[in-house]
């Protein structure tokens, strides 16, 4: 095997020229940005804003999906807030709205709506719930760009991440977007967090060149074989302290332009994988298009599918990797089963739909270096495995 297609991540763009005036960002109609040191830091600061907005008698709580990145939990916990998990709707990454309502209590201050691999949550429905209960709605758009709220301002705050493997890759950083009319009331909270600065000097430029070189197929294959790097491993990492960051506008703008010029790969996947629908597979981008307001013109972070069974998902993951395609199961477990998370939850509960989702999810690379021949190879492997696999019922349907 001569090289391997990396699972995710686009090249770090070259910074453009310094703008003469403050640039008009895509979110400018409704939001102002406070740039941060990471997407996790941005979420932690958003939780602090929600905490300042609504005072409660007991320890405050924030609602979030039972399947997702453990960094969401670390951001919430870092502000002294309890994470309250909610199970998903069957065969979607979306929270079950009935269970969201059941989870709301007198100490609830916010709901985190997570966009999943380019598929946004149903923000209008969640915003309606938030209005009923005076809650702060946070759109976590770390995996989606542009955020679903930019054209409507429906969320009270929006989270962006500029880390490796995100839609805009600046090798780090993030942004908290706050509704323009609320920015003045949030200033005291924002000032509580230290302000750092990203410098585009020689060190940063060398790091960019090395990073981009390592994303090629042969270097990535060599990197993957170094066990101490622990590439792709899902871990809970406590957040010691969040910070703001003065990220140069020319760097952010170059990242946005790079995203906008990126090829859109998922239509090729849609065409090549259409036979899987009759073999028990579910293509999340297609089934969730109407529910999540998915924009087909935008690049996605990964192409996500649900296998008919855990066994078939695991076999597909192994065989695709053997063919040089970095397919993976993403977080692999629902949040309570990520080491270090369960002890932080209010009480132990069962999340059968999230568990089923985690056990069947397979994600496929969707970045600019994926070729049509790669996608056809993926389709051939999945079709061959599915032909040999007897049909099985999904866990939450049994």
UniProtKB/TrEMBL annotation:
Keyword tags: Pyridoxal phosphate
Keyword RNA-binding: no
GO terms, molecular function: pyridoxal phosphate binding; transaminase activity
PANTHER family on file: DTDP-4-AMINO-4,6-DIDEOXYGALACTOSE TRANSAMINASE, TRANSAMINASE
UniProt-annotated catalytic positions: 166 (proton acceptor)
InterPro entries assigned: DegT/StrS_aminotransferase, PyrdxlP-dep_Trfase, PyrdxlP-dep_Trfase_major, PyrdxlP-dep_Trfase_small
Entries under Pfam families matching the protein: DegT_DnrJ_EryC1 (PF01041)
Chain positions found as N6-(pyridoxal phosphate)lysine: 166
Source domain of life: Bacteria
Keyword match Cytoplasm: no
Stated family: Belongs to the DegT/DnrJ/EryC1 family.
A Gene Ontology biological process term: polysaccharide biosynthetic process
Name assigned to this protein: dTDP-4-amino-4,6-dideoxygalactose transaminase
């Amino acid at each position: 095997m001569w090289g391997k297609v990396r699972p995710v991540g686009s090249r770090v763009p070259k910074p453009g020229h310094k703008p003469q005036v403050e640039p008009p960002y895509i979110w400018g109609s409704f939001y102002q940005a406070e740039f941060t040191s990471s997407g996790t830091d941005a979420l932690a600061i958003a939780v602090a804003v929600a905490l300042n907005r609504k005072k409660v008698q007991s320890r405050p709580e924030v609602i979030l999906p039972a399947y997702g990145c453990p960094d969401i939990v670390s951001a919430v916990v870092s502000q002294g807030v309890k994470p309250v998990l909610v199970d998903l709707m069957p065969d979607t990454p979306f929270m079950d709205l009935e269970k969201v309502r059941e989870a709301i209590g007198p100490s609830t201050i916010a709901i985190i709506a997570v966009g999943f691999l380019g598929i946004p949550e149903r923000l209008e429905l969640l915003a309606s719930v938030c209005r009923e209960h005076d809650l702060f709605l946070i759109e976590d758009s770390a995996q989606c760009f542009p955020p679903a709220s930019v054209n409507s301002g429906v969320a009270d705050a929006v989270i962006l991440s500029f880390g490796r493997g995100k839609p805009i890759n600046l090798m780090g950083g993030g942004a908290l977007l706050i509704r323009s009319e609320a920015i003045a009331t949030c200033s005291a909270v924002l000032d509580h967090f230290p302000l750092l600065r990203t410098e585009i000097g020689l060190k940063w430029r060398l790091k960019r060149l090395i990073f981009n070189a390592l994303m090629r197929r042969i270097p990535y294959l060599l990197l993957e074989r170094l066990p101490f790097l622990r590439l792709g491993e899902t871990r809970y990492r406590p957040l010691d302290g969040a910070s703001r960051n003065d990220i140069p506008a020319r760097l952010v703008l170059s990242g946005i332009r790079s995203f906008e010029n990126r090829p859109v790969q998922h239509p090729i996947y849609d065409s090549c994988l259409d036979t899987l629908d009759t073999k028990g597979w579910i293509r999340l981008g297609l089934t969730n298009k109407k529910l999540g307001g998915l924009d087909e013109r935008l690049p996605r972070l990964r192409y996500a599918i649900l296998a008919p069974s855990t066994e078939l998902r695991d076999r597909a993951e192994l065989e695709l990797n053997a063919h040089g395609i970095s397919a993976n199961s993403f977080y692999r477990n629902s949040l309570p089963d990520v080491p270090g998370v369960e002890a932080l939850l209010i009480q132990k509960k069962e999340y059968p739909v999230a568990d089923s989702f985690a056990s069947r999810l397979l994600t496929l690379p969707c970045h600019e270096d994926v070729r049509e021949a790669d996608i056809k190879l993926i389709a051939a492997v999945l079709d061959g495995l599915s032909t040999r696999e007897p049909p099985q019922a999904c866990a939450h349907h049994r």
